[in-house]
Structures are given as structure tokens and as C-alpha cells.
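Hi team,

As requested, here is the filled-out complex form for the adenosine-5'-diphosphate run. I kept the field names the same as last time so the parser does not choke. Let me know if anything looks off before we queue the next batch.

— J.
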Amino acid sequence: MRVLFVASECAPFVKTGGLADVIGAVPKALEAMGHEVKILIPAYRALLPLLETGQRVSEFSDLFGGKVRVIEVRAEGLSLLLLDAPHLFDRDGTLYLTPEGQDWPDNHLRFAALGLVGAHIAADGADGWVPDVVNCHDWQAGLLPAYLRQFKRPAPAVVTTIHNIAFQGVYGPQNLAPLGLSAELFTQDGIEYWGSISFLKAGLALADKITTVSNSYASELLMPEFGMGMEGLLTARAGDLSGILNGIDLDVWNPGTDPALPRPYNARSLKGKGINKAEVEARFDLTPNPSAPLFCAVSRLTSQKGFDMLLDCLPGLIAKGGRLALLGSGEQAIEQAFVDASQRYKGAVGVVIGYDEGLSHLLQGGSDAIVIPSRFEPCGLTQLYGLRYGTIPVVARTGGLADTIIDANDAGLQANCATGIQFSPITTQMFSQALARACDLYAQPKIWSAMVRRAMKHPVGWDVSAGAYLDVYNAALEQKSN
Ligand code: ADP
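And here is what came back:
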């Protein structure tokens, strides 16, 4: 099967979150199963050097104010179709934000270009390569099926994948004509959303099938608490919606070979983890103590992620002998609160504000536990890295966190199946109790190390889920042919 992925991020090239990891991993797993996958992503400034090594596969003389080329490149085991549109993507700043941290004012044009070029490739192919299925990811690719519908020509099946429903790409109705969208599509069962245009809604309403990144999140999305305004549409399309759990790249995340770890290790010998722990303590200015539990956090610091609750849990955690090493960036108030906490609890709380891939690996390789108190979490990846690295996840019971961790309650421990600690309802009090439970379990080395070894054996690769994507693609094709 030939599959076109359309997305705004792809690891290891450009990443702000879990979306990038998925886009970098699923195509490899599908290719290993004998399928062809090409990934259309914008040629942001960081990707421009790659253009030199590629080959032009299509060109548009004027698209939203400039010339656009699509350059095909094979890099890092992936086939990329780079959307070379300097007027839209050759900029300082991050993928979505200006250097001052504001949304780019033309984000609607930037990602409409992604959808429009994706639609052209879907309909006409790229240098003779025509996809059977297009998999659009998140709102940035959402307009693709809208443009495709406007072409009024035979088209491949379209699957839209929701990585996080909180991001919806909503823009005023005055953008309809500038985006080249027909008024015909501006209806309740099309791209219209409370009087505006929603890129995500377009992707959901007009795709043949919809997936999201865990089963629990697929069910949660039908409820007003989680659906964020899309629950009605998703309920109407529930028959076409399925959850496919994210996996992780087992080569990139391998504690036995990870170059970011001073001492790689495996489930047979965990000695290296102790040496890595000393390195984490040094990097985060923590008082060295091999026998005190070390919790880590690696996250965007936004209200979704629940780290404000962690701030309130710190005195209790420290009283139990726990320490915290936190790596994160995001909302300034949360960043500052953690910097303040690291001053107040010197030696027990260490904080690095920023984004650092290597340090995130070290934290997984050198910490005893990882905390993920998200208020909602479509899938979550850091708990999967935690399992693979024997870094026990302490998680809120929601979305993919609920689906991937088996709680160390009495039954779970007795049945020898526990791999972490879950808490619900998602409150500071329950989080605090979960942290205390983790400290108590850590104080029982036999139970703890059995749990660590079990976690490390838990399957977290892509094999099963890649097959599930294929099943959805086949179902979409069948639905379209009927
Ligand atoms: P989300 O996509 O909502 O941010 P996920 O858990 O799905 O959450 O994915 C987050 C990804 O980003 C993981 O690969 C995690 O390791 C990485 N990450 C998040 N914050 C940082 C950071 N400050 N430094 C390095 N990696 C980070």
C-alpha cells in the first residue's frame, strides 16, 4: 500500500511534542511491513540544508503569495516530501510561534498550504507516485480533505488522526476566500465551527476514517469534558473513530545502547541505572543519595500537564525522602514556580527550564520514577519511555496513561502484573497519595525491583499498532469503494 502522511512535525528533524515522534516512527514500522510511506512536512528553516540533497517532484508558481516546490529526500530512514515555501516557513522562531512567543499571524495560510499541496499530491501524485491512502495528522493537515473535495475528482481515502483535540486551528470566516475555500463547504457538516473555520473540524468531518492515539481517549472524546466542542461531531462519527495506541522507537529509546547514558543497562543488570542516577543528581544540583527515590518529569509545562499540582505535592514528597529533577518549558508562571521551588528546596528539587533531548534520555535512564499528572492525555509518550527504562511511571488515570500502566494496587502486586502507579480522581490530594505510595514501594527493594524489571519487559514498540493503522487504511479504502 502507498500511504501519504501529512503533518507539521517529524522526529528527529522538527519536534515540539509527541506528534513528531509518531510521525517519525509509524512510517518506518509500515515500511518494515512492505508498504511505501512518504511524509509531507513544511521545510522550516532547520530543514533547509536537506533541500540540497533532494529532488523536485512538484512545483506551484504562486501559492499564498510565493513560489512553492516539493522536494523529495530520503533521510534518517524516512522518505520526506519537503514543502519548500520560503515565504511561509523560512523563519526564525519555532514551528508555530514567532521569536517573541506569539502565534505566527499567518499560521492559517502556512498550514492551509500544507493541506492544499497535500491534496494536490493526493489527487495527482508526486513524480508519478500516487498514494492509496492519505493520513492527515492534527489540525495543521485538516484542510486537506476540504481541498480534495473541491477538486471534484477521484481521490484516495483519507484518514485523520487526532493527537490532541485541544489544538483546533480556528480562524474567522473572512479567511474563506483568502484560503481558496468554497462557500459550499462552510456548513455545519463541513468546515464551519460556531461561525468560524476550524481546520481540525474539516479534517474530522471530511475524512473517511478517524483515529486517535489511545482507546481511552477515543471514548473520552465523545464526552463534553474532553471533546472540547467536537464531541457532537465525533459521536455522530463514532463508527468511524478508533483508538490506536502510540508506540515508541525501540532503537532510539534503548537503555542498553543509549549514547546519552553514562552507563547503559538492561533488565538483567540494573547497576548502570545507579551510576546514571548520580549523573542526574550532579546535573540537577541534587544532594547525592543512592537510596532515596528520585522522581523526574519531562514535559511541556502547560495546564494540561498538571504540574501545578506537583508544586503543592513537593513538601509531602520531600518529607517522604523523595527528590525531583524536572526538565520542561512552557507557560512562564509554571516555569518560574519550579525555579522558585528549586531555590526553596535546594538539594531536593532540581529544575532545568528548556528543551533538551539528551537530558530527557538521561532523566529516563537515571531516575527511579517519572511523574505524569496530566488532566487529560491523549496517549503520552514519556510513560512509555519510563516503562522501557525501568523508570516507574506515576500517572493520572486518563487517556493513554490509563491504557498503558498497570497500577500497583494490592491486586496488581499480588498478580505480579503492576508496572506503575495510577491515581484518580485527578486532584492534588490523590497525586500526593500516589507519590507517597511510590516512596513506600521504593522502600521495599524486592517489590520495587521486580516492578522495574516487569516494566522494562512491557511491550511498547510499534508492531501491533502499525498493523492497526493498516487495518484502518484498508477499512477506509473499502468504505470509499462502496
Ligand atoms: P505532548 O505531545 O503532549 O507534549 P507526549 O508525552 O506525547 O506529550 O510527548 C512529549 C514528547 O516531548 C516526549 O518525547 C518527551 O520526551 C518530549 N519532551 C517534552 N518536553 C521536553 C523537554 N523539555 N526536553 C526534551 N524533551 C521533551
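Two things worth flagging: The chain is about 40% helix and 20% strand. The chain has a mean pLDDT of 97.

Thanks,
J.
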